[in-house]
Design goal:
Elements lengths: L1 E10 L4 E10 L6 E7 L7 H12 L3 E4 L12 H12 L2 H16 L4 E11 L1 H11 L6 E5 L23 E7 L7 H13 L4 E6 L12 E2 L4 E2 L2 H20 L1
Parallel strand pairs: 3-4, 3-5, 5-6, 6-7, 7-8
Antiparallel strand pairs: 1-2, 2-4, 9-10
Helix pairs in contact: 3-4
């Protein structure tokens, strides 16, 4: 049976408290791969919980994280943008929170800490990529219609003091995404190549931003759901994790 629980966790170093959720199959107590689920710009929500439960049915331990802080959620687009932009302006803080969330994931008794990954949607896609950029030891990161801008305009060391990315990266991209243009996609590919990452990009024609969200239906702004891209991208993610966790 898939079990989902609210999970409050903290970072005592920075006196921060976060409220996310965990999902797992409670019919056995064996260790399994753990996956972080990173939320879109509105904050931890039912959308990420649903994705976590889908991951749990695949045999993973899923931790839907809270990158903003307990009680910080966007109730409208403006509030969501303000919350996101606070961390866009401080990518060191964003990456440190991602590293803390990953270490929290590894501390769960049911998680095999040698097999961990991260997925994210929209802003959460950036968070998943940034965890890999930070040099954290994860097996793989998956971005669904993510945002690709690098942490700084200047090349340099990440939070682990290195430049290379150790984890594999899977980018699932709507080619008509107004928030991540084809040039942004190519720039990301060049960045990943320069950091010796092993990466893949799957781009979907006539697909915009938010293509995994059935509630997105604004064609005029490029935010709209695509059932085909949603299903295909999830299948690609399943294959990606199955391969890297069994190799």
């Amino acid at each position: 049976m898939i079990r989902t629980e609210k999970f409050i966790y903290g970072n005592l170093k920075n006196n921060e408290t976060f409220e996310g959720s965990i999902s797992f199959d409670d019919t056995n107590d064996s260790k399994r791969p753990g996956i972080l689920v990173c939320h879109a710009y509105g904050g931890h929500s039912d959308f990420e919980i649903k994705k976590s439960e889908e991951l749990a049915t695949l045999g993973y331990f899923a931790f839907a994280i809270d990158i903003y802080g307990q009680g910080k959620r966007g109730s409208n687009p403006q509030e969501s943008l303000e919350l996101m932009n606070e961390l866009n302006a401080d990518r060191v803080l964003l990456q440190s929170r991602m590293i803390h969330a990953h270490k929290t994931l590894c501390n769960f008794d049911l998680v095999d800490e040698s097999k961990t990954g991260a997925i994210g949607f929209c802003f959460g896609g950036k968070c998943a990529i940034d965890l890999a950029r930070a040099g954290e030891d994860i097996s793989g990161a998956v971005s669904f219609h993510g945002l690709y801008d690098p942490p700084t305009a200047k090349p340099g060391q990440n939070l682990k003091g290195t430049t290379n990315i150790k984890s594999e990266i899977l980018i699932l991209h709507g080619y008509d995404d107004p928030m991540a243009t084809p040039k942004n996609m190519i720039d990301l590919a060049e960045e990943l190549k320069s950091k010796n990452a092993k990466w893949q990009i799957h781009a979907y024609s006539n697909v915009g931003h938010a293509f995994t969200n059935p509630l997105a239906n604004d064609q005029s702004t490029g935010l709209f759901y695509s059932e085909e891209a949603d299903k295909h991208s999830w299948s690609e993610m399943k294959y990606f994790f199955d391969r890297i966790f069994t190799s």
